[in-house]
Please model this.
Amino acid sequence: MSELLKAKQKLAKGRYIISKALMSGDDGASYLATDTQLDNSACVVREFYPKNKLSEEEQAKYDERFQSSMLILTQFDHPNLTKIYDSFTEKDRYYVVMEHVDGITLQTLLSMSVKPLPAKQVLGWMLQVCQAMQYMHNRPKPFIFDALDANNIMIDQDENIRLINYGLSRFFSDADSISFSSSPDLISKEIKLMGRTMAFLLTRHEVSDLGFDPGDVEVSDDLVRLINRLLADGNGGIRDFDKLQQELNKILNPPKVKERKTDEDGKTFKSFDIGRRLEDLLEKFLGQPVWLIGCEVLAVIGICITVYFTMNPTITERAQSAVYVACGNELHLYSAATKDPLGRIHMKY
Model:
């Protein structure tokens, strides 16, 4: 492990001043620092260094990979992602300057809690994670986060989720490929990581190879089924985080079930919603072929015309004069010239 930077040590020609070390590992360290060019605002400086001494050819390859990667990552702008502001190299070390998020990781929050985190709260956080993941996957250069666990998900002071880390150490490994790809296999891997993270937050235990079992923890059956879908090969048909967001929304905000009315004996019966019935009929009608709709419209018009003329017969004008004679509830018509009967009209009163 390389020696850590000391407090008040300066980087990038004095622009960044180290305040303290936050964490360290075999591949680098993180520091809290101040940016002298931005009113001494707080920032996080990530330091990376190769494990082995590099040749000039390897150094050139790492430099090119670092610069091209940072050019893409500094363009990310999403409320649930930690902003990357700057990057530079000094000697044989690489530095990435990131936004300082004042908050707490889900791992730390879970360790401070006596009980597992409430399912409703976890679902709300995971919806925000889905939005950030879908944003990265839909970029012109799709990015695979590859660090989706409780240590790399933070809640800020406004209780918003922020993804940190980005798994940047991948870009300083010996592997030639980098994860600017929308490969279905890589996205499937991230969806599975999401399922494992959700299971861990809900139970405080790592999920087993046999699948997710909440045990004594109160988790809805729908959520258990969803997590097991994410853990299965193929992710249960969920191919992206947009679809996963829809599934989480169904569980968090289930559709309201209309209560059935009961009669005096307590028997249930379905209520008749005339508005809903009319909407269903209209939808079925418009879903027919155009020629069939035209035929049905013409048939209805024909029926209406027939009914109208049946109820309202035409009155033909008589060529000769007639005599009307009242007889009970009827009027009898006779020809004035020949006195032959012409007809009769029934009267109600």
